[in-house]
Amino acid sequence: MTQVVIATKNRGKVKDFEAIFGPLGYEVVTMLDVAPDMDIEETGTTFEENAVLKAETLSAALQTMVIADDSGLAIDALHGEPGVYSARYAGDHDDEANIQKALRNLQGETNRQARFVCVIAVAEPNKETYYVRGECEGEITTEKRGTNGFGYDPIFYVPTLNKTMAELTPEQKSTISHRGAAIAKLKEKL
Ligand SMILES: O=P(O)(O)OP(=O)(O)OP(=O)(O)OC[C@H]1O[C@@H](n2cnc3c(O)ncnc32)[C@H](O)[C@@H]1O
Ligand SMILES: [Mg+2]
């Protein structure tokens, strides 16, 4: 089976990638499998910078093609916060604390418009790195709903489906999500 190496340690993202690459006949391999002790510091100020950084660092270490995903939530009323800091907004990868901070900062706010952004970078030895970007529009709820997915999914409402991201199956999520949109663009390039 052909392997795709993803420079991530986020099990939620891995599930999203498997939902899309699995049916295409690819085996998804991640940093948890091939480089569990490696930590790539996300020093960039944009999703693009961080995605390229993660893909190129792991690709150089493994000398193989690597895909990386840098993503996050941009809330209009909070001027795009938490943005590239989505994973470490309130606590390092503490989804619950991050959600509570977002809800607290939006208390009494009527503008709930937000979008998920996903930039996927592809790095390969001796080739030029490239990236694609996907977005998904939604609204921040006032309380959590649903238990699927990860991160901010329980408070991200998708008006067209009348559900939060956490109320969707992984397959449903991939058809409308920022990650699904980015992977669709990626498939055209691979
Ligand atoms: O860097 P890696 O190891 O890939 O994993 P990470 O969780 O640190 O990933 P990011 O640096 O890209 O930060 C993305 C954060 O944005 C949020 N996020 C991204 N995509 C999401 C999605 O589909 N649903 C909910 N939250 C998401 C979530 O809090 C993630 O931790
Ligand atoms: Mg990260």
UniProtKB/TrEMBL annotation:
Molecular-function GO term, any one: ribonucleoside triphosphate phosphatase activity
Active site positions, chain numbering: D70
Residues the record lists as binding Mg(2+): E41, D70
Cofactor annotation remark: Binds 1 Mg(2+) ion per subunit.
Sections of the chain in a coiled coil: none
The protein's enzyme class: hydrolase
Kinase found in the keyword field: no
PANTHER family assigned: INOSINE TRIPHOSPHATE PYROPHOSPHATASE, INOSINE TRIPHOSPHATE PYROPHOSPHATASE/HAM1 PROTEIN
Function: Pyrophosphatase that catalyzes the hydrolysis of nucleoside triphosphates to their monophosphate derivatives, with a high preference for the non-canonical purine nucleotides XTP (xanthosine triphosphate), dITP (deoxyinosine triphosphate) and ITP. Seems to function as a house-cleaning enzyme that removes non-canonical purine nucleotides from the nucleotide pool, thus preventing their incorporation into DNA/RNA and avoiding chromosomal lesions.
Official protein name in the record: dITP/XTP pyrophosphatase
Organism field: Lysinibacillus alkalisoli
